[in-house]
UniProtKB/TrEMBL annotation:
Catalyzes the conversion of 3-deoxy-D-arabino-heptulosonate 7-phosphate (DAHP) to dehydroquinate (DHQ). This is 3-dehydroquinate synthase. It comes from Jilunia laotingensis. Its cofactor is NAD(+); Co(2+). Its EC number is 4.2.3.4. The gene is aroB. Keywords: Amino-acid biosynthesis, Aromatic amino acid biosynthesis, Cobalt, Cytoplasm, Lyase, Metal-binding, NAD, Nucleotide-binding, Zinc. It catalyses: 7-phospho-2-dehydro-3-deoxy-D-arabino-heptonate = 3-dehydroquinate + phosphate. It is found in: Cytoplasm. SUPFAM superfamilies: Dehydroquinate synthase-like (SSF56796).
Length: 353
């Protein structure tokens, strides 16, 4: 898989101009959702190299990360004269960069694309690493491809327009990066003042978080080994998201990951010896800032069934990424059904769900 260029922008106009120059094209398209069309596109239109861009707008939120939306973007590209030499810019959160990346990977067997993530979640996770895809058949990211963007341009000034829930959604992935990297970074994240955000300091933390992911992806682009470290919190988290989708409950991805981290730190404690004090500190931060996802014991079977569909599974076993200590990662860990149900019991007890 080719390496993508990731830039923490000082001047978006300069960085974007340079990124576009590296992608010779006949037509320029920009994909937004209803939110980024309203909040971010006006600024983009002021940039000279974007004046000829043809905009395609899709619905916002994860409920639109579907085959139907994908087909509508393919149709719009086709109707507006896109060729295999066209360039697509994805301007938005993780839903836009995931779906837009998959659009680019598949239209005319692949066109060049640039990601400009506008949410914290997209900056530190979705837009970086080359994973693209859509939800299908009630399952998260069930259809997709590894197809890295030519460039990812991170402009943290966009974060000033984020509401608190979208800020914390992205921050959960940063917390995960802290847990899989080192104690110093983890402690920085737990102690960051989320009530009075210092955006310059946040930019520094975003840069560190992206570096953690970049380093891991460089070692294992196609997730055969150490890249599975990035799945901490996601086996349980994706099950929570899938349950929420079936019940028409709106759950942001990062919140599901945070709740998944609670579950998987418990598994880490009982299976690989993760320290109880660090587990409790992390869970305390999550409980304070993310609330809890409510479910009862009658839904354990359904959650377990969702976990059985997880892409990380091998030979019928549910596969987890666990920790022995902060930064000490154990991939390809399994747990039986009884232990997973105990994990759900622990989650409901400690989170008051």
């Amino acid at each position: 898989m080719s390496k993508q260029e990731i830039l923490l922008c000082e001047e978006l106009e300069i960085s974007l101009g340079q990124a576009i120059e590296k992608c010779p094209h006949d037509r320029l398209f920009v994909l937004t959702d209803e939110h980024t069309h309203r909040l971010c596109m006006p600024r983009m239109k002021e940039i000279s190299c974007m004046r000829e861009a043809i905009e395609i707008v899709i619905g916002a939120e994860d409920t639109h990360k579907t085959l139907e939306t994908l087909a509508s973007v393919w149709q719009a590209l086709s109707d507006k004269g896109a060729t295999r030499h066209s360039l697509l810019i994805n301007l938005g959160g993780g839903m836009v960069t995931d779906l837009g990346g998959f659009t680019a990977a598949t239209f005319k067997r692949g066109i060049a694309y640039i990601n400009i993530p506008t949410t914290l979640l997209a900056m530190v996770d979705a837009s970086v690493g080359g994973k693209t895809g859509i939800n299908f058949n009630g399952l998260k990211n069930e259809i997709g491809a590894f197809a890295p963007a030519n460039s990812v341009l991170i402009e943290t000034e966009f974060l000033r327009s984020l509401d608190a829930s979208n800020f914390f959604s992205g921050y959960a992935e940063m917390l995960k990066h802290g847990l899989i990297s080192n104690t110093g970074h983890w402690a920085e994240l737990l102690n960051f003042d989320t009530d009075n955000i210092d955006y310059q300091y946040l930019k520094q933390l975003v840069g560190q978080s992206v570096q953690v992911k970049e380093d891991i992806v460089a070692q294992d682009p196609f997730e055969h080994g150490i890249r599975k470290a990035l799945n901490l919190g996601h086996t349980a988290g994706h099950a929570f998201e899938s349950l929420a989708l079936t019940e028409n409950r709106h759950v942001l991805h990062g919140y599901a990951v945070a709740w998944g981290i609670v579950c998987e730190l418990y598994l880490s404690h009982i299976k690989t010896g993760f320290p109880k004090d660090k587990m409790r500190q992390t869970i305390g931060f999550i409980k304070e800032n993310y609330g809890a996802f409510a479910f009862d014991c009658k839904q354990y079977e359904q959650l377990y069934a969702f976990m059985q569909h997880d892409k990380k599974n091998m030979a019928g076993s549910i596969n987890f990424t666990l920790l022995k200590e902060i930064g000490d990662i154990s991939i390809n860990q399994t747990a039986d059904k009884d232990t997973i149900f105990e994990m759900f019991d622990f989650y409901r007890e400690c989170m008051g769900a």
